[in-house]
User: What shape does this take?
Amino acid sequence: MQRNILEYLECTAGRFPDKIAFANEAMGMTFGEVSQVSRNIGTCLLKRGYQKEPVVIYMQKHPHMIAAFWGVVYSSCFYVPIDEEMPKFRISLIFQNLKPRAVICDETTCGEIKDIREFMHWCQQGPATYEKRRDMLLEQKQAVEAEMARMSQVLDMIRYKCWYYEQAAADGNEDRLHSMTLMDMPEEIRRAFENGHK
Assistant: This one.
């Protein structure tokens, strides 16, 4: 009887070592590969003295991320996954609360981790770094605002499409809608259409 996810992995890897366990558009990993990579990660963490503590996993969505999860469990630590798309300020807060000694990242997220660690280092230095911290947060604010504007456009496009197909369903066809001008639309829908098509 399998009592935990590690026993499940070992059992499955023993029975189906060459079967694909996880895959994305670019590559896949067999159960045997996942098992080997996970053990290597666990061994590395143990040799470096990490036990029963948080290990942050900050990676792109990829089969290697799953192997990292299991690797952390092998080391007797617990993993804390962080979404790569999360604003850096929120990630910095998570780091400040967890104070992790170990972070598993990839080539894409490695540079961002350096920025986050730098921000945490500034926090420890006190008032002398207030302006540096402010500048980093202003940069993040601009990035978040730009993303919010983009998502607002997507949401308005969805609002317009929902209204469009409600009307088409009620009419039984799209004839009236095809001949409709912007001024014929309800004001709220017109604003959504215009914003969604910027």
About this structure: The mean pLDDT is 89. The two ends are 58 Å apart (CA to CA). The chain has two domains: 5-105, 133-196.
